[in-house]
Design goal:
about 230 residues; alpha/beta; Rossmann fold; 4-stranded parallel β-sheet; two-stranded parallel ribbon; 9 helices; about 50% helix; globular
Length: about 230
């Protein structure tokens, strides 16, 4: 299970109707929708490339047409590029930035006016421990650091409208994107102080905490098994 699916399922468990956005993985999105409907909530899979503003706007319009309101926005779309500054190509840099950072901008911009009009809303962005530690590939780190900056800026900008904006910074989570090497698996205690790899559900639990807490905004919740220890 990926982080996006885990968050969608956790939201449904709390009785939230969910729009499951996908760009490439249609089958997985449809499977998630079926599971959510079985839980008694409404769910729809919509395709939108978050790096394209017009597709995001269309998705938001369709969501409002279906549900009339948008109370929660979770920005989870993300990709990686395993390359140093000497190796990374400009096209790869742009691809990572377009999805990871531009995508957050497009989605926030598309829903914020609606939330301001209603004077309520909750936004949770999925960053990464890489954005706090500065370790990893340069494009990925830069994009995830940028998400942290957007989170803190919007939290201040939107606080007077009853809108909270927070982020979750996962560490090593057991997903397809993690792609742990055999060396990392053998030395997991060195990689993760707690001694084991997190699950997508751990990220989802932190998202739910932030959504339920009206007094928390502008915060970055570290879900990494203690990887900030000894920075």
């Amino acid at each position: 299970m990926g982080i996006g699916r885990a968050i969608a399922m956790a939201l449904a468990k709390e009785g939230v109707n969910v729009i499951v956005n996908y760009c490439k993985h249609r089958n997985e999105a449809q499977e998630t929708v079926v599971k959510i409907r079985r839980m008694g909530c409404q769910a729809i899979a919509m395709r939108a490339d978050v790096s394209r503003s017009h597709e995001v706007k269309k998705m938001v319009e369709q969501t409002l047409s279906k549900f009339q309101t948008i109370d929660i926005l979770i920005n989870n779309a993300g990709i990686g590029a395993l390359a140093t500054i000497r190796q990374v190509e400009e096209k790869d840099w742009n691809r990572v930035m377009n999805v990871n950072l531009r995508g957050v901008f497009h989605c926030c911009k598309a829903v914020v006016s609606h939330m301001i009009d209603r004077r309520q809303g909750k936004i949770v962005n999925i960053s990464s421990i890489a954005g706090l530690r500065g370790t990893g590939s340069v494009a990925y780190v830069a994009s995830k650091s940028g998400i942290i900056g957007i989170t803190m800026c919007l939290a201040r900008e939107l606080i007077d409208f009853g809108i909270t904006v927070n982020a979750v910074a996962p560490g090593l989570i057991d997903t397809d994107m993690a792609r742990l090497t055999e060396a990392q698996k053998r030395n997991i205690k060195k990689e993760v102080p707690i001694g084991w790899i997190g699950k997508p559900e751990h990220v989802a639990q932190s998202v739910i905490f932030l959504l339920e807490n009206d007094y928390t905004t502008g915060q970055i919740v570290n879900v990494s098994g203690g990887r900030l220890i000894g920075i």
